[in-house]
Write a structure and sequence with these properties.
The chain is an alpha+beta fold. The chain is built from 13 helices and 23 strands. The chain is globular, with a radius of gyration of 26 Å. The chain binds adenosine-5'-triphosphate. Adenosine-5'-triphosphate binds next to strand 10, strand 13, strand 16 and helix 9.
């Protein structure tokens, strides 16, 4: 299925049809590279964030959570290097008005003649590369003047650095320890695209792990292994995952070493998570720019003071969702009919169970409604569907990614049993309705 050139189109259209993802401001013609998560999309998104938070914060003693503001003191971005260095070199074509990243000219296509590279068409007129800052700027307070200019954060990490001592001291932590954050980030990307892969507004799940210098290589390997294990635990196929190490020209200004975790998207292998050794770059710069000491003092040896090194794990919520959706999308033939099914892992699937009365009479709706109330009371997201032929209802839930169905039929009313149907195996089994909730709960686990 990977490299299926139509797969992205099929995913985009399924996501719209089933209420996963809509284009922002669609009725106005859309706005560049911003997407809205619909009723099912927002559930998938919450489940992804919940799985990350659980693995990174709740299941560990050595990581604390944080939710810093999107707007920060403008000096933060001078210290971090983003004002000076967060730029892509750009080339414009004066003839067709298209804009390219100078480092990607070789891979881009001329809009006039897509078989040609920019500059090869006889009318092309390319400008010299110019630097373009990717940060969105806005103004704080009532006047639009340079003194009031602030940035929308391009990464959440800086919030963790400037709060390093606050979290260390209030959380009674010792090094090594980490700060985890989930939040929006904004980048005025030059070449956004591929659906939710590269957008201008997106959400990140980032964790900064502060370690003693000299132990950083070890922790770097530890976090690489942990992070690829996490995405596998959400059901993504191992053969579609790999590491890519940044060569010297790819390394960010702050990094000593960096690995991407890549997924084989329908448009090719691309990064969805980065693991970076940021050294003491950020803390050192904030210490310098703020004039505040940010050193760690070892409580067992007060003469031992140092600026910790940071191992960062940084993953986008949207890119994780795109990997999950692309990995889950399957087309298959069942009894001579085409079926589209989203094989999302039950842990992340938006709706866990659908409840169906076979027909709307003979006590079936009453039984089914009571059953759904029990499912709901157990905290399991569910959907009640009583419209149309049962086969069509199953297909709708297959496309939506709902892993289990409970069907109430004539026999249910007589003997209290219901049929449980599994999305992936299509297996159907009769079970006691009184056991249905605990059965579903076990299957989700
Ligand atoms: P890329 O090279 O793809 O622009 P990056 O290396 O700049 O990404 P990081 O700064 O390491 O990305 O950000 C960490 C993670 O945040 C990325 O792995 C990705 O999942 C997510 N991310 C970054 N930029 C975007 C974007 N424009 N849209 C959606 N997600 C993004």
């Amino acid at each position: 299925m990977a490299n299926d050139s139509q797969l992205m189109d099929k995913l985009v259209s399924l996501c719209k049809r089933r209420g996963y993802i809509f284009q922002s401001s669609e009725i106005y013609g859309g706005v560049g590279s911003v997407w809205d998560y619909g009723p099912l999309g927002v559930e998938l998104q919450r489940n992804v964030k919940e799985a990350w938070w659980r693995a990174m914060v709740h299941e560990r003693d050595d990581i604390e959570g944080l939710d810093a503001g999107i707007l920060m003191h403008p000096r933060v971005w001078e210290a971090s290097g983003h004002v000076a260095g967060f730029t892509d070199p750009l080339v414009d074509c004066k003839a067709c008005k298209a804009r390219f990243r100078a480092d990607q000219l070789g891979e881009s296509a001329c809009p006039r003649k897509p078989s040609m590279r920019p500059g090869q068409h006889k009318d092309c007129e390319l400008t010299e590369p110019r630097l373009f800052n990717l940060m969105f700027m806005t103004f704080m307070g009532p006047v639009e003047e340079a003194a009031a200019a602030v940035y929308l954060r391009p990464e959440t990490a800086q919030g963790s650095y400037v709060n390093f001592l606050n979290v260390l001291n209030s959380g009674r932590q010792r090094i090594p320890f980490g700060i985890a954050q989930i939040g929006k980030a904004f980048r005025n990307e030059i070449t956004p695209g591929n659906f939710i892969f590269r957008t201008r507004e997106f959400e990140q799940m980032e964790m900064q792990f502060f370690v003693e210098p000299g132990t950083d290589d070890e922790w770097f390997e530890y976090w690489k292994a942990k992070r690829i294990e996490w995405i596998r635990s959400l059901g993504v196929r191992s053969e579609r995952l790999r590491f890519h190490e940044h060569g010297p020209t790819e390394l960010a200004h702050y990094a000593k070493r960096a690995f991407d975790i890549q997924y084989e998207f329908p448009f090719g292998w691309s990064e969805f998570e980065g693991v970076h050794n940021r050294t003491d770059f950020d803390l050192r710069r904030h210490q310098e720019y703020s004039g505040k000491k940010l050193e760690y003092v070892d409580p067992n040896d007060r003469d031992k003071r140092y600026l910790p090194y940071v191992i960062e794990t940084a993953v986008g919520v949207g890119r994780t969702m795109l990997a999950l959706l692309a990995d889950a999308y399957h087309e298959e033939e069942v009894k001579g009919e085409k079926r589209v099914v989203l094989r999302l892992h039950p842990r992340v699937a938006p709706t866990k169970v659908a409840v169906f009365p076979l027909v709307n009479k003979d006590g079936m709706p009453e039984f089914a409604e009571k059953l759904q109330r029990e499912v709901r009371a157990a905290g399991i997201p569910s959907f009640y569907d009583d419209s149309g032929a049962i086969g069509r209802r199953y297909r709708r839930q297959d496309e939506a990614g709902t892993p289990f169905g409970l069907t109430v039929d004539g026999q249910t009313v007589a003997d209290g049993t219901v049929t449980i149907r599994e999305r992936d195996t299509l297996r159907q089994e009769r079970i006691d309705a009184a056991r249905a909730v605990s059965h579903v709960r076990e299957l989700i686990r």
